[in-house]
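Intended use. Records like the one below are meant for learning the mapping from a protein sequence to its folded structure. Do not use them to infer anything beyond what is encoded.
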Amino acid sequence: MDRDEAQKPPLRRGGYDPADYAVHVVRSAEEAGVSPLLVMTVLHNEAYKPHHPLLERLWQWWKPGASFGVANMHRMTFEEVRRTHGLSERWQDLRDDPAFAVHAAALHLKDLDRVLPERHVRRYTRDELLALGYNAGERNMRAFARGVPPGPMARSYLRRYRAHRSRAAGILADRGRPQDAVTG
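Structure written out for the chain above:
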C-alpha cells in the first residue's frame, strides 16, 4: 500500500481506528528500527480526538500550537524530526497525510530510543519509557528512567498505553505478522 493510498480519518468522533494504518505502522516501524507494537500502541493512545484534516485546520485556527495528524505531533517535535532525518514535508502535511504522520512518529520514537539509557528502573519496560517520552518529552523520559515518578498526566498516558497494548498486538497479528515480530 502506497502512502498516497492511506485513507483520511472520518469527520465523526469515534470513527477513526488506528488499525486502518497497520500496514503503514509496520513499514514505518521497520524502516525506523522500532517495534511496530510500540508505534501501534502510541497511535491508540493518540486516538482520543478526531483526526480529520478539516477539523485539525479549524482547531489550528483556534489553537495555533495544536498537534497534528493521527499521531498528534507538535510542531517543535516535528521540526526536530524533520531536521534530523532530512524530511522535505512540512508540519502541516501531518494532518493531510496519515501515513506520513505514522512515519514521523516512528522516526521520533527512534530518536527517543537513541537517547534513552540502556539501564533504567525496572518498573517500566523500554517501550513504556519511549511511549512516555513521546507524550511527555525526552527530558521527562530520561527522568522517569532514573526513577523520578511521572505526574498525573504521564501516569494516565501510561495506564492507557498498557490497556491498548494487547489490542494493538492483536491488530498487528491479524495483519499477518507473527506475534514474536511485534513484541518489544
